[in-house]
Design brief:
four-stranded antiparallel beta sheet; alpha+beta; 23% helix; 10 strands; rod-shaped; Immunoglobulin-like
Length: 298
């Protein structure tokens, strides 16, 4: 059939072409498969974001920035400054160095939370006598708690025996003996000293003279002409039957050191704590309150 050489050559070429078509198609498909896999496996580089660090700012810089941006009051209030430590308020009024004296009082007829008042404090050596010669005298402005401390008694001798005489306005005097400590001496072992009320005329005795004063001030208030502050024993702003009853109960009681009818002697080196209307320490030469408290020996 293919007897000639030319026919045989053409047959071989035709056979090769026929066979090369599927092989080429297969090779092309394999190449495309391999290429697509390579492209899928290739890692993609994410876009780079530029991050600008923001420095921490203080409260003061925040306030500056807010004001520059015309911020509202509500924005400013969002910044809370660190609170500063608060000082502790002490009931003690005097501030002293060295040995000190402290005491606590309760005024008869007063509510527990209303113990404020001016209290005379006189310190003498040894036991109380009827004609006291005070080494130190003070007029202490006692707060509502009735507690008073840091009263300087520098110059006295630690370990020695002394007596403090306390008298409030409208009360009879109360004495308390103590052995001086080199640091703090507490009257009555730190327990409250009761000041008996009813001495309206300040003579250290409660008698009919005081009762008469209370009668004249009966039913009065601070705005009336017959008002007497000493007669308002419970400090409620009116002189009433309660105040009268306290005076009647205490009729005849005499304060420590006896009745006073002449100026009580004050120490020449008195450490007065308040000033009078003339801006002079109470108990000093020229002070208008000299001789407010009186005494008399038996």
């Amino acid at each position: 059939m293919f007897s000639t050489f030319k026919q045989r050559v053409l047959l071989i070429i035709y056979t090769i072409v026929i066979l090369s078509i599927p092989v080429g198609t297969y090779l092309i498909s394999q190449y495309q498969t391999i290429r697509s896999r390579a492209e899928e496996a290739k890692p993609t580089t994410p876009p780079v974001e530029r991050i600008t660090p923001v420095p921490e700012s203080s409260s003061s810089s925040n306030l500056t920035n807010l004001s520059e941006a015309d911020s509202t009051l509500e924005d400013l209030l969002k910044i809370t400054p660190t609170p500063s430590p608060q000082a502790t308020i002490s009931p003690t009024i005097a501030t002293s160095f060295g040995p000190t004296l402290s005491f606590k009082i309760t005024i008869e007829g007063r509510p527990k939370e209303k113990q404020a008042g001016k209290v005379f404090v006189g310190v003498l050596e040894g036991d109380l006598v009827t004609n006291p010669k005070f080494l130190l005298t003070f007029l202490a402005d006692v707060p509502a708690s009735g507690e008073y401390g840091n009263l300087s008694i520098a110059g006295l001798n630690p370990g020695s025996k002394y007596t403090a005489l306390l008298k409030g306005r409208g009360q009879i005097a109360k004495a308390s003996t103590f052995i001086m400590s080199p640091a703090e001496s507490k009257l009555n072992g730190g327990q409250a000293l009761n000041l008996v009320s009813g001495d309206l005329n300040e003579d250290n005795i409660i008698n009919t003279a005081d009762y008469s004063i209370a009668q004249k001030a009966f039913n009065s208030t601070p705005t009336q002409s017959n008002w007497n502050k000493n007669a308002d024993i419970n400090d409620d702003g009116v002189v009433n039957i309660f105040d009268i009853s306290v005076i009647i109960k205490n009729l005849g009681q005499v304060g420590d050191s006896g009745v006073w009818v002449s100026p009580i002697p004050t120490a020449t080196s008195s450490g007065a704590l308040t000033e009078d209307s003339n801006n002079l320490p109470v108990g000093s030469s020229g002070g208008s309150n000299n001789g407010y408290w009186l005494w008399i020996p038996k």
